[in-house]
Write a structure and sequence with these properties.
This protein has about 180 residues and is of the alpha+beta class. Helix content is about 40%, strand content about 10%.
Length: about 180
């Protein structure tokens, strides 16, 4: 999806769509569209995709200006058939064999939790989280609040990944057994 700020008939956009073999996922599936996607009366927002994405579109549409948080653009959406897009189940990332941690290994779990706590404490994540809870839009801009949230999210993710690397045993090609 993109906010092109230009009409689809614009020569640069048309060239881009042809070069990348992209098609309008809404209109190509017979999904009704409106004359304009921006409050200025222009159709300048699109959802384009590859032929595989087009075949996976099940539903879609365009919301009115008043069906979502305030914006000068309409919200466009498509629902995709995940089974069609992700047919290969041989690489299931949730399978235990793809994870470094084993809950059945109490020593590894304790080491992991200790590493997570150490990282979160050293990066002052708990203090920053308390500050974030008390931020409000009357004193801070939405961008400031979002930036604080994103920073916390990055540090929490880094803490979990770091702890997993530190606590996981070296792989010897066979699974750990109790």
């Amino acid at each position: 999806m993109w906010d092109a700020n230009s009409l689809a008939s614009d020569s640069d956009i048309a060239l881009f769509l042809r070069t990348c073999s992209l098609t309008d996922l809404l209109s190509s599936r017979g999904i009704p569209s409106h004359a304009s996607t921006s409050s200025r009366g222009r159709d300048i927002d699109f959802i384009h995709g590859t032929p595989l994405l087009l075949s996976a579109v099940r539903r879609g549409g365009i919301l009115s200006f008043h069906q979502r948080p305030h914006s000068d653009h309409r919200a466009l959406y498509v629902d995709l058939d995940k089974n069609l897009l992700f047919q290969d189940s041989s690489t299931d990332p949730t399978a235990p064999s793809h994870r470094l941690l084993r809950l059945s290994n109490p020593g590894q779990c304790a080491k992991y939790l200790g590493a997570v706590n150490e990282y979160l404490t050293s990066h002052k994540v708990f203090d920053r989280l308390n500050l974030l809870v008390h931020l409000n839009l009357s004193n801070n801009s939405l961008q400031e609040i979002q930036a604080a949230y994103e920073s916390l999210n990055r540090d929490i993710t880094a803490a979990l990944l770091n702890a997993e690397r530190r606590s996981a045993r070296a792989s010897y090609g066979y699974p750990w057994s109790p």
